[in-house]
Each structure stands twice: as C-alpha cells, then as structure tokens.
C-alpha cells in the first residue's frame, strides 16, 4: 500500500493502514519538504517506528510494486494519478473524485487510458460525497416511488482545519466578490458528480445539472485559529448541486455550512448529514459522527476525519478486486469496516 500525503485525512488513512493486518504499508508520499524523510509512524501518531520513510520521489514509490494507493492530497494532480494508474496501482481517493465527470473530456480520457495501460482502477469516496450517497441510495430502496434524493451536509465547519478548502468555498470572502457563485460551484463540483452517480444508480438519465447557493454574512468577527472570518464577510454557505429530468429535481447534493458563532444560516443546522428521500413514503435520517468512549485526542475534529478517510481506505480490497477503469460505489459490494 502507498499513502499519498498525510494531512487531516491522509494521516487517518495511514493510521488505519498500519492498524490493518491485511494491508501492508510500502511507501508514503510527502508533498511538504518538512515531511520528507520522516517515519510514517511519526506522521500519523502510530506508537512504534515503521521503517517506512516519507518521500517525494514518485519513481521510488512506484518501484515498491504496491498494489494500491490511498490518495488524499489537498488538490489532486492528474499527472500523479495517471502515473500511479499506468503503473498498475489501484487508487482510492477522497480528493475531489467520484466519477471524473467534472474533468475535461481529455483529462478523463487520460485517466481511462492510464487505467487501461496499468489494468488498474480508480475509486472516489469519503463522508460527503461518499457514505452519504450510499445511505441515500439504500433508503431509496424502501420506496415504491422515488421523487428526489436530497443530501445536505448541515454543519459548523470550523472544526475542519483546512483554511485553503474553506476559503475556496467562499468563507471569509466579501459577498460582492465577482464570480463567487461560479467559483464555489466549480470548487464543489464533486458533489455534482455524486448527484449524477446517484441518478445513474437509480437508472435515471439527467437532462442537466444546476447549482444554486445562498451566502450569509457574519455579524461579528471570528478567529478560528487557522483562519479568520471578519464581520460582514461570508460565514454561511448554503447550496445544492441538482440533477434534473425535465422539471423534476431528482437528485440534490449540497451543504448548509457555517463557520464561527456569528452567523445565522438560512436553515438551522442539523449537525450532521441529512439524508432525505422524497417519494412514497418519505424517508429521512441524519448521520452524526461522534467521538467514541475511548477518544483521547484533544478536540473533536478527529472523528470527522476518520469518517472521511475510511470509506476510501476500507474500500481498498474491493477496489483491488474490481475490474479496471473508473468505478463508483454503485459498482462495488457494500464496503464495510473491520473488527479487531
Ligand atoms: N469526500 C469527503 O467527504 C471529503 C471531505 C473533506 C475533504 N475531502 C478532500 O480530501 C482531500 C484531503 O483533505 P485534507 O483535509 O486532508 O486536506 P489538507 O490536510 O489540507 O491537505 C492534505 C495534504 O495535501 C498536501 N498539500 C498541501 N498543499 C498542497 C498543494 N498546494 N498541492 C497539493 N498538495 C498539497 C499536504 O501533503 P503533506 O502532508 O504530504 O505535506 C497536505 O497534508 C482534499 O482533496 C479534500 O477536498 C473530501
């Protein structure tokens, strides 16, 4: 196994790889020079040294002959992905990939060609998108008729310490920023991929995908440590990527996000992932990710990062067994965790 970067999510994935008897760590890719040469254990809080040192030498990582890679960089790099896949390394990723639908036709074709050359597979998942889409599809199985599957991440994001990600979603920016809606649409387009994937699983052909968003300004200053949200700038982002058949909105994937205490979102927060199926009957559940009884880390960010990492990391054996190409959760058996 390779672990590609060890940030918020990658470090949780790395920890899980070391904990699993059926996965063997062969290498760790480091984006930051400060991580090169450091033992994997140090990068994820594993108690004993592993002897596997992080590197930015892609050839050396490919030379390990690893079967699979947990790919969790902040921004995906198509060249890296293609090199991994063409070398026969199956990729599971949380990094803005569900179907590859938001890629340009040329870039998606490059990925498909790399999979063909390497007889390899790429699979994207996570919490949202990822598990939430799966739960929506499962609930739709309880309905005689499905009108819409709607999934909303309804949370205060200020425990997710990724300033770059949050700034790209509009937080801390001026409301009048030109092109902001389109900017947020493209930054969050992986949700549109997951909406299209759900439609595909429902055997529905979408006419079009749309995006709508409401920005809410902060009514006071917030200093979150890793970023600030000054009063008057954006502290609430409420939007959906929607898939349509004619005038019917059949799939919606979106977010009701706030950051900091000084904002009143358009809808009260549910503090979880709200999964709704409208139809006959209506189905609804809220997924809450909570710390376990033995949680010994400071703060509550960790459980959410594990929740985001594991749908990809746990999928490794299933993806290794899958046929080459781009696969989605609709193509895999139900991915489960492991007891120990
Ligand atoms: N599906 C979901 O539910 C979900 C939820 C949240 C996030 N995500 C996605 O998961 C991925 C990882 O998120 P994260 O919170 O773990 O991110 P992060 O901690 O902010 O960054 C991950 C790692 O990316 C590397 N990195 C930093 N700057 C970079 C740059 N400019 N270009 C390329 N790599 C860079 C660093 O690697 P080193 O550690 O090696 O220096 C960093 O640790 C992101 O693509 C994010 O959008 C998915």
Give an overview of the whole structure.
Pfam families: DAP_DH_C. This is Dihydrodipicolinate reductase. It comes from Nocardioides fonticola. By secondary structure, this protein is α/β, with parallel strands linked by helices. It has eleven helices and 14 strands. The chain has two domains: 144 residues, NAD(P)-binding Rossmann-like Domain (Rossmann fold, 3-Layer(aba) Sandwich); 154 residues, no CATH class. The protein has a six-stranded parallel sheet, sandwiched between helices. It has a six-stranded mixed sheet with strand order 7-10-11-6-12-13, covered by helices on one side. Strands 8-9 form a two-stranded antiparallel sheet. The two termini are 20 Å apart. Bound molecules: NADP nicotinamide-adenine-dinucleotide phosphate. NADP nicotinamide-adenine-dinucleotide phosphate binds next to helix 6 and helix 7.
């Amino acid at each position: 196994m390779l672990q590609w970067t060890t940030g918020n999510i990658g470090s949780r994935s790395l920890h899980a790889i070391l904990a699993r008897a059926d996965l063997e760590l062969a290498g760790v890719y480091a984006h930051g020079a400060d991580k090169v040469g450091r033992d994997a254990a140090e990068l994820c809080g594993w108690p004993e040294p592993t002897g596997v040192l992080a590197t930015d030498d892609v050839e050396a990582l490919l030379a390990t002959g690893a079967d699979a890679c947990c790919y969790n960089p902040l921004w995906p790099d198509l060249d890296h992905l293609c090199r991994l896949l063409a070398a026969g390394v199956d990729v599971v990723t949380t990094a803005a990939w569900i179907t590859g639908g938001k890629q340009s036709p040329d870039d998606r074709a490059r990925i498909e060609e790399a999979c063909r050359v390497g007889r390899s597979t790429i699979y994207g998942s996570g919490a949202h998108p990822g598990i939430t889409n799966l739960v929506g599809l499962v609930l739709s199985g309880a309905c005689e008729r499905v009108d819409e599957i709607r999934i909303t991440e309804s949370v205060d994001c200020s425990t997710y310490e990724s300033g770059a990600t949050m700034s790209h979603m509009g937080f801390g920016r001026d409301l009048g920023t030109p092109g902001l809606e389109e900017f947020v649409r493209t930054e969050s387009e992986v949700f549109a991929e997951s909406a299209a994937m759900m439609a595909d699983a429902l055997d529905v052909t979408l006419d079009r995908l749309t995006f709508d968003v409401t920005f809410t300004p902060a009514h006071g200053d917030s200093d979150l440590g890793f970023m600030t949200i000054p009063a008057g700038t954006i502290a609430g982002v409420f939007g959906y990527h929607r898939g349509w058949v004619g005038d019917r909105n059949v799939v919606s994937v979106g977010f009701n996000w706030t950051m900091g205490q000084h904002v009143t979102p358009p809808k009260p927060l549910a503090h979880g992932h709200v999964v709704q199926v409208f139809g006959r009957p209506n189905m609804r559940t809220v997924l809450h990710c909570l710390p376990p009884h033995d949680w010994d880390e400071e703060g509550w960010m960790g459980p959410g990062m594990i929740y985001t990492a594991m749908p990809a990391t746990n999928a490794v054996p299933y993806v290794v067994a899958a046929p080459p190409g781009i696969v989605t959760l609709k193509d895999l058996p139900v991915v489960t965790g492991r007891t120990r």
